[in-house]
Specification:
Helix content is 30%, strand content 24%. The chain has helices spanning 31-34, 54-71, 103-109, 124-127, 156-171, 213-225, 233-251, 302-320, 326-342, 405-411, 415-418, and strands spanning 7-14, 26-28, 40-47, 78-81, 84-86, 92-99, 131-138, 143-150, 204-211, 261-268, 286-293, 350-356, 374-377, 385-390, 397-404, 422-423. The chain is globular.
Amino acid sequence: METIKPEIISRETIKPSTPTPNSKRIYKISLLDQLFGSVYVPIIFFYQNKEGNNYSISSGLKKSLSETLTHYYPLAGRIKDGATIECNDEGAYFIEARVESHLQEFLKHHEVGDLCLFMPGEMQSETGSLLLIQITLFGCGGIAIGMRMSHMVADVAGMSAFINDWGTMMTRKSGKEISAELTRFFPPSDSLSMPEPGPCKGNLVKRRFVFDSIKLGKLKTKGIQSGVENPTCVEVVTALIYRCAVAAASTLSSVGFLEPSVLIQAVNLRKRIIPPFPEKYFGNMVWSYTIQTHAQESEIEFPALVGQLKAGLADFCSTYGKNFTGQELIQVLFGKKAKTHSNDDHHHVNEYICTSWCRSLLYQSDFGWGKPIWVGHAGIGFKNLICLNDTREGDGIEAFVTLEEQEMAVFERNEELLQFCYLH
């Protein structure tokens, strides 16, 4: 594939179309929001477009974004302190770019690292923006929308609600309500100090592995035949990737055997708390549970991992699915986490984090050009990060995996892994 380099046409700040009233200027984030510190979530959307001109697309996106920010006004503000966003309408950072390449050709031949070309750079430290967007207009009419949103403001479910509402505002669909549930249920802690993420150690590599419907079906069958009852697609994919990642790390380990590892599985709390939270709750409603692998285990068996994931989720739901008040829930959550950490020597434990965007409605976002032809996770992220997303058809899973370079070289050649997925 020929080298492509989008040309930056403009940079500007998009402010809410209606000033935020003084009564909403001080926005207290929740304790769960505080946990994510300065992390930004990078998502990119690609759309085909055979009608309209570049000017109308650009101006329409800016105008509708401004109107959407009126409802999602914290995104146009700036962080005041560790527990507060000042909703001062300073706006979202917006970049417009163009490239002469054809969208379909790019998607056929690109590497994961190329996605950064269509993302706003990490300028949040310079601009203070909680939302950064880059639109790139392809010569064929195709469109890329790259977005970085502060994880302190919302999780992926919240981001999905935002971009769907932005699309609704763009298309002016009658009868569709634009609303953001901004109520915070868990009060912040003024004394909580979250460490800033340090620089990534080592040379990290990210790859995309696609589990189509046929391969995914075979993987689920493998889990069922091993005695696991009704494993989910996310459970079997997560178990296989974790198994193969730990195997790769063990192959390169200086000690020559399996080192203790822990998988941290993120969970959307919205529907797992009684009563359930609104699906459009805009904020962070994410917690996690863990499964652990000890050094004395010679190998991590796939059925055992799937069973642990299923049992861990069941235990999680029985523990946190009760009718707690916000403060009681926080105490239970942090009590559980403190107990888990006290049982491990994290100086000698390899941590893997898995987050699932599946069923997040990211593929439902429509700006008038139809639904996206592909939604991807851009940027490297963190070491040992596994991010799962639906395929466009909704019957498969794409896994974006970030590992240390040498471990990835072993991981991506794992024969068991490649029985069930394709490397892209």
